[in-house]
Amino acid sequence: MTRSTQAEAGHESALSSALVTRMQARRRDEEHRAATPLELFFDLSFVVAVAQAGQQLVHAVADGRPWHGVSGYLLVFFAIWWAWVNFSWFGSAYDNDDVLYRLATLVQIAGVLVLAAGVPRAFQRNDFAVAVLGYVIMRVAQTAQWLRAARGETGAARKAARAYAAGLVLVQFGWVLLILAPHEVWVWGFGPLGVADMAVPAIAERIHHTSWHPRHIAERYGLFTIITLGESVSAATIAVQTALDDHAQVGALLPIAAGGLIIVFAAYWIYFAVPIHDYVRSNQQAFGWGYGHYLIFGSAAAIGAGLAVAVQQVTHHSRISANTAAFAVTIPTALYLATVWLVHLRHFKSGLLRQAVLPCGALLVLAVSFAGRWAVLTAGLVAAATVAVGVILAARAQLRRTDAP
């Protein structure tokens, strides 16, 4: 081999190494670990999916089919949330941002968009075929990522990565078989398969704890919370726009817009009140916290759907009563307050009074559901008062700690 040929071979080898690196776990104590532009781009694809689920919930509730809407929303939102969870926790442990990782992520984004396109079919006709196809696309890439991680690891870490890959394939095979079964089988099979899906991380993590980063994963969950709350901001904006276009209903629409914005502001304030990465340090805490966010994310997005329902009721584009429209806002708002306390905040609160603030706020939000046209605004004021009381009690607790000898 000539020197020229050797040099060319060396350059090709160096280029290959630069394009594709060995996938190894990132350190859990890595400094300045933050969400990457690729992760933000991935989250952007979920805006479409969450919006689709919210729109279908609005249509069902406004047409007088609330139970159909809620049940369909819970199933579809589970699929959306779980797809995001699978990507986010893997990325927190293994994101090396090389060419193969980026390409695999782009394939997963394509799968998310297919999933979003299948949401209307799932709601309207209980046809989950397109949604499952989106999952197949995502999981082909996700499984390849886990196998690549296994190749770069040794010992227990390699076994855990292989367990993740095998679990994804087996469960996804079950979803495909379920699609081919009669609808009655789908109804009864969704729950067990959903549990099996969520059991994959629990089984794999018993073999070896992946090195997800507490601060990074807390940031990722915070960013997705903002995405779901964005649906409520959009709904409040539509309420303002409708009020400007329909002068006859401006007196009823502006309280909905104002109350909706206050609820969203309070929801944001409450969620980001504590540095949750100080709590989420081990798998024992992470599983309950991470899985519990299904209710937090789902209720946050449902607030926006409820505001849209309230607007449609006022403008006579729905078949429901004012009380039903009010409940469409107050129930998800109360659920958000209660679940953020249960999953997220209670670990940082001391004393019965501080612990009772959010549960009591949730009950008061439900109590104002019968306030008619003022229900949404009143619920917003209750949420704001809940924040104010929480801030005052936290300041007093901090003052006592400062004054303590």
What does the model show?
The protein has 405 residues and is mostly helical. It has 2 domains: 36-207, no CATH class; 214-403, I/LWEQ domain. It is 81% helix and 0% strand. The chain has helices at residues 3-19, 37-62, 66-94, 99-117, 119-125, 129-152, 155-180, 183-207, 214-245, 250-271, 283-314, 322-345, 352-367, 375-403. The radius of gyration is 24 Å and the shape is globular. Mean pLDDT is 87; it is low at 5-16.
Q: Quote the distance from N terminus to C terminus.
A: 78 Å
CATH architecture of the largest domain: Up-down Bundle
Cα-atom Rg, whole angstroms?
24 Å
Q: What does the main sheet amount to? A: none
Q: In the CATH scheme, what's the topology name of the largest domain?
A: I/LWEQ domain
Index terms:
single chain, I/LWEQ domain, 2 domains, 0% strand, mainly alpha, 14 helices, globular, 405 residues
Brief rundown of the structure:
The chain is mainly alpha-helical.
Topology of helices and strands:
Blueprint: H1 3-19, H2 37-62, H3 66-94, H4 99-117, H5 119-125, H6 129-152, H7 155-180, H8 183-207, H9 214-245, H10 250-271, H11 283-314, H12 322-345, H13 352-367, H14 375-403
